Amino acid sequence: MHSPHLLSINDxxxxxxxxxxxxxxxxxxxxxxxxxxxxxxxxxxxxxxxxEDSTRTRLSFEAAAKRLSADVINFSAKxxxxxxxxxxxxxxxxxxxxxxxxxxxxxxSSGAAQRLAESGWVKSHxxxxxxxxxxxxxxxxxxxxxxxxxxxxxxxxxxxxxxxIVGDILHSRVARSNALLLTALGAKVVxxxxxxxxxxxxEKWPVEISYNLDQELSTLDxxxxxxxxxxxxxxxxxxxxxxxxxxxxxxxxxxxxxxxQAIIMHPGPMNRGLEISAASADSPQSVILEQVANGVLVRxxxxxxxxxxxxxxxxxxxx
Amino acid sequence: xxxxxxLLKNVLLSEGARVxxxxxxQKISQISGELNSELPVIDGKGFMALPGLVDLHxxxxxxxxxxxxxxxxxxxxxxxxxxxxxxxxxNTFPVADTAGVVEQVARLGTEAGLCDVFPIGAVTVGLAGExxxxxxxxxxxxxxxxxxxxxxxxxxxxxLMRRALEYVKSFGGVIAQHAQDPLLTVGSQMxxxxxxxxxxxxxxxxxxxxxxxxxxxLMAHYVQSRxxxxxxxxxxxxxxxxxxxxxGMSVTAEVTPHHLLLTDDLATSYDxxxxxxxxxxxxEDVLALRAGLADGTIDVVATxxxxxxxxxxxxxWNSAAFGMIGLETSLSVVCESMIETGLMDxxxxxxxxxxxxxxxxxxxxxxxxxxxxxxxxxxVNPTAKWTVDKSKVFSRSSNTPxxxxxxxxxxxxTFYKGVHVLxxxxxxxxxxx
Amino acid sequence: MSIVLxxxxxxxSLKRIAHEIIERNHGLDSVILLGIPTRGxxxxxxxxxxxxxxxxxxxxxxxxxxxFRDDLRIRPPRxxxxxxxxxxxxxxxxxxxxxxxxxxxxTIRAALDAIGELGRPKSVQLAVLIDRGHRQLPxxxxxxxxxxxxxxxxxxxxxxxxxxxxxxxxxxx
Lengths: 319, 433, 173
Known about the structure:
The structure holds 3 protein chains of 3 kinds. Chain A is of the alpha/beta class. Chain A contains 12 helices and 9 strands. In chain A, helix 5 packs across helix 6. Chain B is α/β, with parallel strands linked by helices. Chain B has 2 domains: 6-49 and 373-386 and 403-427, Urease, subunit C, domain 1 (Roll); 52-361, Metal-dependent hydrolases (TIM Barrel). Chain B has 11 helices and 19 strands. In chain B, strands 5-16-17-18-19 form a 5-stranded antiparallel sheet, covered by helices on one side. Chain B has a 5-stranded parallel sheet with strand order 9-10-13-14-15. In chain B, helix 1 (71-80) links the parallel strand 6 and strand 7 (83-88). In chain B, helix 7 (235-246) runs parallel beside helix 9 (283-295). Chain C has 4 helices and 8 strands, in the order βαβαββαβββαβ. In chain C, the strands form 2 sheets. A 5-stranded parallel sheet of chain C has the order 3-2-4-5-6, with helices on both faces. In chain C, strands 1-8-7 form a 3-stranded antiparallel sheet. Chain C is globular, with a radius of gyration of 15 Å. At the A-C interface, helix 1 of A face helix 3 of C.
């Protein structure tokens, strides 16, 4: 990777995306046997800086760092000085003073990770673990990794694959990162959502737009269901949960319309019965748990690739 | 004879004439091709002489936010930028919604003695948009307020807006509307469009501005009152104002320098120095604003100078304050976007930045460079190139979006009521007393 | 720059190593070759062919030690190469690590760490084409193609026809 940070999928070339996916695959093979823990990052300190609750993402990064033997500091903004008004800048500088070399940041403000990386406040590597409505690059990488595992003929290129992303595109960092990443790999992405949950400007993105899930289902190789936040209903993005589920939920009837080899994805946590029915989530076509497992591998690959040192071997160090 | 009297030799008027200007007793006493007198001579070096610039939209932050700006530091920034009159917006703490507060601001301006500080009064009590402030009391106070605005907030309640427009007719006031439908902009962060969709920042639709402009144009016409629209930013807004003027409606409009030069793609840096209300728009909007300013649809340039302390900008985008400082770069930015592009000439620039704003505000001692006028004038080197350095601004805050940009035209001298307050770009330490 | 080993000498060295492996292990029953990428893998395959020709085939695998290196801080990350351990595993085997050049010994230390994670062989032995000296760790090779005294600043470059198009070893300053 040419950048010292992972802030956005836009930071990555196709070659770099494949490098991360390939590294994750090798890590899968190494760690598949008895090598559960690798000494690669022994003595290095990684910080999980979470301004927003997300237990699963934090645990995934933590597992990844620990499997590489890094020391992990977890910092959650809740109940800390941040809730008393301490700024992002002060918090990050404090953690770096404690020895952090890489900061994994989750923040409700779009651009927080980029701001941390580019403001000059800290020198650490920055990994974006979700910033507001902007991006969640490691989620997109693990999704691509999962898709690749199921479509081995598309190992280096997703051209010919059609992937639907369904639901609250407007507020979804997962949708943004996936649209960039899957498109970069050559896939055709279709956003499927009610018009109220699509951002103005989306018509200029290199994706297709559809308001009708039923029309698209039989054309998709993968269908990615996004979580619906209940507060969207109170903000009148749709009238009722029942109506949303009827039009955009992956219910049992819609399951039958999918291609037999198509896979069902969800970034979690799921609202069973709303955007996805239990039968869909638990069907043989669902790869939702694989996504979780792959998350650790992809995050290990990212940590490994980011934390490498100088590109020129230091004088006097023998190999 | 006043100790401040002088003879300004060898300056160009905007029409191109090379003249000498004599100032006696705060007034321009003579303008002629070649003057000689006993007065101290200031060499104009062939630069341009303009009437002092007049700003209708300035946030001076005092009282209440003196860590961002004070009337004094804001006055210093004003004369650095060639302004001899500024209009202090009402969103201070306490809000300038009573005769007491506007008189205090006016007095602070007089004490600073560097330029005229004309307070703007709030339209509603506490800017809360619920009931009218004592507009007449402010108008009859020592501050003689004529412009009323809730700027920072929109007077969105149509009935309240109607009453305000009607009420100010009795003393020749004008309502300056910050056009922003609050319900369409809850949590909005930047212009709604391709860039906001990519950045995941909540969009600020152009219609939130245009729907209020349309409503208020019709309302002001209906009640036969004067409406001034603050900081126009959209192509649609320009077209609405153009239509209103074609119908003979009494509306004036302003544009800020930053909306004439900057576009929403700057937000891709997530640097909140580019976060401003109303937001930076697209290049299409910028071109429409320039055309509107050139053809007179937009009457004036107003800075919306909005200082903020560094901690309000040295943070993530959503947490940052809206606003940019602008007094010191205003003329140069207008030069860059209007003169250098060939869209406007200097006589028109003087109208938009001095004469017309003085007329709208009723600032009689401003906007004229002629014999008998008060000596509020500036000398500008129109071809000088300079690079904006945020560490060198006179404002107490450094949130300029132009840091590092090279701009054209520089203020050399500023004279306020005949007093030489800025010389070669530096404060002289002199003030009007 | 000077060529210190030519194709015929490389062949001869590897063949000799094959003979020594058979002799030392009293046959090949429990021997496994593990090549260290990149060129160690090729060398392991060649030694494996010699063993086949002389005696009997042995399992040949690959052991990527990248994630076990202790120098990530000062070197850029490298792409991982597939590790492939023969299906019979390492338990109770005589594992012979194969690499091209033995220098500081750090690569071998990393390989020993990796093997430790994979199982518990009966023994681990080391075969290298070139031993150039300058060890930083108490590590020695059991089978050496050629000892080449160098100074620390020289570089030793092993070229193999499968990867580089020709067989030779050169030392440059």
